[in-house]
Design goal:
443 residues; alpha/beta; Alkaline Phosphatase, subunit A; 2 domains; two-stranded antiparallel sheet; globular
Length: 443
Amino acid sequence: MSGKQISRRAVLRGAGATIALPFLEVTNLARGATHSQTATAPVRLVTLFHPNGVYPQNWDPIGEGSDYQLSRILQPLAPVKQHVSVISNLGTGAKGHVGATSAFLTGTPLHKKAAGRINTPHMGTSLDQFVAEKIAGTTSVPSLEVGTEPPRSGGENGLAISFANTVSWRSDSTKVDPEIEPQAVFDRLFGVSKKSRQQLEDDASVLDYVLEDARALHKRGTAADRRKLDEFLTSVREVEARIARNLNPSSLEADWKPLVEPELFRPEAGIPPTRDEHIRQMLDLITLALQTDTTRVATFMMAHGFSRQNFTFLEGVKGDHHSISHHKEDPELTEPYTIVSQWYVSQLVQLVERMATVQEGNGRTLLDNSMILYGSALKNGNGHTTHNLPILLAGGGAGQLNPGRRIVLPDETPLANLHLTLAGKMGVEAERFNTSTGTITNL
């Protein structure tokens, strides 16, 4: 790798694969910077969606500001409380699972465009796609949309349930379905096309094909660069290995050799057998995508908006999520409903903790330079309520956010006001976003 080939977003190339790198000192030096100068990392936007709402009595915290008390559902936030804010009184006015899900990133309820035209969506572009379009060209992947469940069939209020498969909309009539196979996401991030995949040996790691570039950059980098490069490539290796082991347990040796001699097998296509592992792989892939500046916008549908996912793997839970969300105030249902909601919050905690370990210079981490919007499109699944939604906002937004608080907004503040505010912090100038009435100043 020559000096001319090193750029602010350096990549490792090999036969059939391309791996973008995190920010390194050597990439700045190639542009004339000094060792004391570091690249300015960009701001990233991540959305985590979970379905079916929460039990309000166990979600709503007590107090405001930094001294608020975590509710039972929010207890998993305890170790990362300083990185997360609870935002109260945001709403959409949407109805039903389908309309609410579609409104999560648009702020506009999904409805039929004209009488008699069934299943014709109309509401507006979603936040993630709006931002991705405005900053197009800055990354190789404009936006990343991932999920865990395929579309469902059926209808609700004259709208296809399949519309609740996504929160991402490029336009009124163009939804973006999430990719649910980790291998497909991995290949997209690392430039492995269908054609190039055929060129790779079945038992090879993507890293096998970029080692020559990696060794050259390793020699040229500073001590901090070498440490960061080793940590990054190890992360890539671990993600790839987990995908392979999960789908084909016999394909990997029990002990891995050092990074300089990786021996991994390319994963087979498929869905991980456990929900924990599926979500963990997707969260790690999102982290890698942001860390390498392969994308700055990522959206994760942790489940379908009308999900009937069975959660009996959690102690104290029987039945599917949708059924227990219609609890009718029965303690035998509100209890497992609460347990499932805690589990979803713990997935956010996992991402926050992982992103907090990624150093990006100037004393900031990937989490410091990101904004993570977490929540559900319903407040109480029992009545399909869409006011005072369960919304969390994590990360520092490159110094633009002041996390660690409970922020109580005026009643019925449009969720689109938060969308417009976050778009602005991503560098997108706009006076309005769908149903917004203004921005939120106290974030």
